[in-house]
Amino acid sequence: MRPRLRRHVLPGFGLSLGFTLSYVCLLILIPLTGVVLRARSITWPEFVASVTSERALAAFGLSLGAAVVAAVVNGVFGLLVAWVLVRYRFPGRRLIDACVDLPFALPTSVAGIALTTVYSPAGWLGQQLAPLGIQVAFTRLGVIVALTFIGLPFVVRAVQPVLEDLDREIEDAAASLGATRWQTFRHVLLPSILPALLTGVTLAFARALGEYGSVVFISGNLPFRTEVITLLIVARLEQFDYAGATAMASMMLGVSFLILLTINLLQAWSRRRGALA
């Protein structure tokens, strides 16, 4: 009697692989290949001149610096938010948990308009900060605020599942052995959540480095002061400087690949730690 063939809900490997490759090629590989091919038409002196101009270096420096600061801030406070949501039960917890995902669902332009309205000198928070000599809107601080806003969910959602899986009895055992709260966090909790935390921080950094919509309103787009690299690329396109825009886009593409490699290495490290635990 012939064995009964097992039927699968999803199509076979060949068809699934074909759809996967077609989807990835159409949406990712072909557009990126177009950028690379366009960059090859630029001579090396033109490429170097575009990416090393004073304005480009200032924009890239602001993007990189603001992204690093925002990622570090999100690493600290994202861990705190995830800890509170996992370990405590209080009225409104579900509402706060849902609000964490708002930067994911909210259009970045709407986020930029909202932040500018709140932090402008006449805004609700801006007019409270003005007597203290603190101006957020149309400054570099505003860029950091916008990048922190859009990056927070990456850290919270990366750390939250790990905290939910941690056994609280380990913390109780550490406390019973005389460990302080800081010692328990440093030697017991942090090694377990560190891979997820680093992954979330790296994702937040990558998202912040390429952000455009929320920054374009609150930054003021002042060259050499509040202009990020994505805004400069758009400015080059509006000036029909396709060579300059392509050169800077190629540089950002290379940075993105490095970030992707870092994320993959962190995930591999996390899997190895989980297997050894």
Description:
The chain is mostly helical and 277 residues long. The N and C termini lie far apart (47 Å). The chain has one domain: MetI-like (MetI-like fold). It has helices spanning 13-40, 44-51, 54-87, 93-99, 102-105, 108-119, 126-129, 140-165, 168-176, 181-209, 213-218, 229-238, 242-276. The model has no long low-confidence stretch (mean pLDDT 85). The chain is built from 13 helices and no strands. 77% of the residues lie in helices and 0% in strands.
Reconstruct the topology from this structure.
Layout (H helix, E strand, L loop, with lengths): L12 H28 L3 H8 L2 H34 L5 H7 L2 H4 L2 H12 L6 H4 L10 H26 L2 H9 L4 H29 L3 H6 L10 H10 L3 H35 L1
Helix pairs in contact: 1-13, 2-13, 3-8, 3-10, 3-12, 6-8, 8-10, 9-10, 10-13, 12-13
What's the CATH topology label? Answer: MetI-like fold
Largest sheet: none
Beta strand count: 0
Helix-strand sequence:
HHHHHHHHHHHHH
Strand content: under 5%
Helix residue percentage: over 70%
CATH architecture: Orthogonal Bundle
CATH homologous superfamily heading: MetI-like
Distance between the termini: 47 Å
CATH class: Mainly Alpha
Radius of gyration: 23 Å
Category by helix and strand content: mainly alpha
Average pLDDT, to the nearest integer?
A: 85
Unreliable parts = none
What overall form do the CA principal axes indicate? globular
Instruction: Count the domains.
Output: 1
Q: Please, how many helices? A: 13
